[in-house]
Design goal:
This protein is α/β, with parallel strands linked by helices. It has three domains: 35 residues; 208 residues, Rossmann fold, CATH 3.40.50.300; 158 residues, Ribosomal Protein S5, domain 2. It is 25% helix and 23% strand. The strands form four sheets. A nine-stranded mixed beta sheet has the order 6-5-7-8-4-9-10-11-12, sandwiched between helices. Strand 1 and strand 2 form a beta hairpin. Helix 7 packs across helix 8 and helix 8 crosses helix 10. The longest helix has 18 residues.
Length: 443
């Protein structure tokens, strides 16, 4: 019996299945030939120009970063776009991928470099309308609307751009394959063709990729391996704030984050987002505490708000927004067991300001202070910042980059920074909460 195998990972099966049992990819299991006739690969003559050379004799002039002009985007890319690089930008529908890339095309085109924007989802008239709204009209920006790979390559030969933007790879189809656009084979073939084009002609290529329900890039996993840079564009539809994160970067760091704001006139970079995640109130209010979170290499002040309401319900409510619900549950248990706060008979609400999502354990201490502040109805001083991971024993653990967090708190005028120096959650609460006379609250 002829077996079947997965074209992604090579997993074999005696019968056809829709999903690979190894890599869990859909539609990648195909019939394999038991006795494939593979031609023998013969060595070819290498010219002096293409011959391997010592690494000390290789120049990096052609691989230097070229700034786009959008500082936040250049930061994520490691200093700009490298000629010949293949960049994959993924994100949920409607988050603003096309708007951002149209601005990138406009900035590059304003430097008298030709840019080809290929849209397989919109007509050129629709792209022109959005360009008028965002002010991205420039003579060196060329628009094309096609879903055929051969047509895309033909447009590149005609325009000879320095930057090619393809929106999106899941809608481009290679005529040499009979499968539908967006399938694993089609995505792999289109990606290979675009990457070969980028390397052969030294053209930077930005590819837009769709995502699945769980936020992963749609299509075969090899797509992320083939490209040089993988960026993810994320944001909450209820908020105008957007983040660009570098998940892979062969030419720079992979922990940088760019901050943008979506407005009616397009997308605007936010070089200093410190005011976006705080309420802006100069007075101290109970149930609030500021933490210094790290988004990539950037330190961001984030205000955490909490509300504690007594209840007679057998199962008190635990509502969180922007923080990890499991870590909030753990902090509540530690506060009740180690600090004596009777929270099991109260509804607890915890949220961040500005719609930002915190996932690092360093926010534990600020969450605990805001909950204790709401429970005691005693405010934490607005000039106090806190960062620390809380263990089940109530100890305050060390967090990453403490000096950077303290420097950011000092820059913002924070007079006190509570971290691992306090040692235990009880000491942290005594230091952060004070009564009307300025005396420490007993815990």
């Amino acid at each position: 019996m002829t077996p079947f195998c997965c074209v992604e990972c090579g997993w074999a099966s005696l019968k056809w299945v829709g999903r690979c049992g190894e890599c869990q990819s859909w539609g990648t299991v195909v019939e394999a030939n038991e006795n494939p006739q593979r031609p023998r690969v013969e060595p070819v003559a290498i010219s002096d120009q293409d011959a391997a050379k010592p690494i000390t004799q290789v120049t990096t002039a052609e691989a230097s970063h070229q700034k786009v002009g959008i500082d936040e985007f250049d930061r994520v890319l490691g200093g700009g776009i490298v000629p010949g690089a293949a960049i994959l930008l993924s994100g949920e529908p409607g988050v603003g991928k096309s708007t951002l890339l149209l601005d990138v095309a406009h900035r590059v085109g304003s430097g008298r470099k030709s840019v080809l924007y290929v849209s397989a989802e919109e007509s050129v008239s629709q792209v022109r309308l959005r360009a008028e709204r965002t002010g991205a009209l420039v003579d060196t920006l060329y628009l094309a609307s096609t879903t055929d790979l051969a047509s895309v390559l033909g447009q590149v030969e005609r325009v000879k751009p320095s930057l090619l933007i393809v929106d999106s790879i899941q809608t481009i189809q290679a005529a040499s394959l009979e499968s539908l656009a967006g399938g694993p084979a089609q995505v792999r073939e289109v990606a290979n063709a675009l990457i070969r084009l980028a390397k052969a002609q030294n053209i930077a290529v930005i590819i837009v990729g769709h995502v699945t329900k769980d936020g992963q890039v749609a299509g075969p996993r090899t797509l992320e391996h083939l490209v040089d840079v993988v960026c993810h564009f994320e944001g909450d539809r209820q908020s105008s704030l957007r983040f660009v994160r570098a998940l892979k970067n062969r030419f720079g760091p992979t922990d940088e984050v760019g901050c943008f704001e979506m407005t009616g006139d397009g997308i605007v970079e936010v070089p200093d987002p410190s005011v976006l995640f705080r309420s802006g109130s100069g007075t101290s209010v109970s149930g609030t505490c500021t933490t210094i979170a790290l988004e990539g290499r950037r330190a961001l002040p984030v205000e955490i708000q909490a509300l504690v309401v007594p209840t007679n319900a057998p199962q008190p409510r635990r509502v969180v927004n922007g923080v990890d619900s499991s870590r909030v549950a753990m902090v509540l248990a530690v506060l009740e067991r180690r600090a004596g706060l009777k929270l099991s008979s109260a509804d607890v609400y915890v949220s961040t300001v500005g719609g930002i999502k915190l996932s690092e354990p360093a926010a534990d201490l600020a969450i605990a202070l805001s909950i204790a502040s709401a429970y005691k109805d005693q405010p934490v001083d607005s000039r106090v910042a806190a960062a620390g991971e809380i263990s089940l024993a109530g100890e305050i653990r060390q967090v990453t980059s403490p000096s950077q967090r303290k420097s950011e708190a000092k820059r913002l005028g924070m007079g006190e920074f509570i971290d691992t120096e306090v040692g235990h959650i009880r000491q942290a609460l005594q230091r952060g909460l004070r009564n009307a006379k300025g005396e420490a609250e007993p815990f």
